[in-house]
Specification:
The chain is mostly helical. It has a domain of 80 residues: Orthogonal Bundle (Multidrug-efflux Transporter Regulator, Chain: A, Domain 2), CATH 1.10.1660.10. It has six helices and three strands. β2 and β3 form a beta hairpin.
């Protein structure tokens, strides 16, 4: 293994700035076994090899998308560049990809409901109605016709 030097690696502050993760978060990731690439200089300072940023961004993406720490750790522990480990790592990533796709579908549905609510509020406000008032039936019919109640009210 080559010696870790300031010339060939990044300090924790630089990694924090590049990734947007706080120094405390980077230290926590390291304690939890999520950053195996962290090395130490002879005086104990953390140094990250150039490839660490790419790896940290993967860990960030997995965590942001809801992968449990235990699964991220399992992904990392199955690493080491051994061909026999690729199938397990790939399976973890494929499961996470499916979970992300499911969540995206849910978020798109939720976004449509929120947009419809915004549209109905704009419509009510334009008519001088309070958004919390009982809405007259003719206004509800207009909102339904305009597609602004899709998912918000049962069909009439």
């Amino acid at each position: 293994m080559t010696a870790v030097t300031p010339e060939t690696s990044l300090g924790i502050r630089q990694v924090s700035e590049e990734t947007g993760l706080s120094i405390d978060t980077l230290r926590w990731y390291e304690r939890e076994g999520l950053l195996p690439l962290v090395e130490r200089t002879s005086d104990g300072r953390r140094r990250y090899p150039p490839g660490a940023l790419r790896f940290i961004r993967l860990v960030q993406a997995l965590r942001r998308t809801g992968m449990p720490v235990a699964d991220v750790r399992a992904f990392i522990e199955a690493g080491g560049g051994e061909l026999a480990n690729h199938a397990g790592r790939l399976a973890l990533l494929e499961r996470q990809c499916a979970a992300i796709e499911q969540r995206l579908t849910e978020l798109q549905d939720d976004l449509a409901v929120v947009r419809a609510k915004i549209g109905s509020y704009h419509h009510l406000i334009a008519r001088g109605l309070d958004c919390e008032d009982d809405v007259p039936e003719d206004v509800l019919d207009q909102l339904r016709d305009d597609g602004l109640l899709t998912g918000l009210l049962p069909p009439s």
